[in-house]
Amino acid sequence: MAEYLYQADSDADALILAVVFATEEAYRKNAESPAMDVSYRRLCELMVTDPEWHDGTVVFAHP
Q: Is the pLDDT of residue 50 over 90?
């Protein structure tokens, strides 16, 4: 549904990606897809360190 890429104010090299799915089922389907795995591994090759991963639930949104 939405995707946001933030650059941290405190560290220009730190990026934060937030992705919003319509349902948890859609999130899981995406996470478990072979194509997403390939894309994720390619992205990791560009990173200096492994990414931190934080799952959560949207509790408020204002369009």
A: no
Q: Please, what sign has the CA dihedral across residues 57, 59, 62, 63? A: positive
Mark out the alpha helices in 1-63 (DSSP H runs): 24-31, 34-45
Domain contains 46: yes
Nearest-angstrom CA–CA distance, 25 and 31: 10
Q: From CA 29, how far away is CA 14, in angstroms rounded?
A: 27
In a domain, 33, yes or no: yes
* pTM of the predicted structure, to 2 decimals: 0.76
Contact 5, 17 (CB under 8 A): yes
User: Look-up: residue for tokens 């090299």?
Assistant: 13
Find out whether 20 and 58 touch, Cβ atoms under 8 Å.
yes
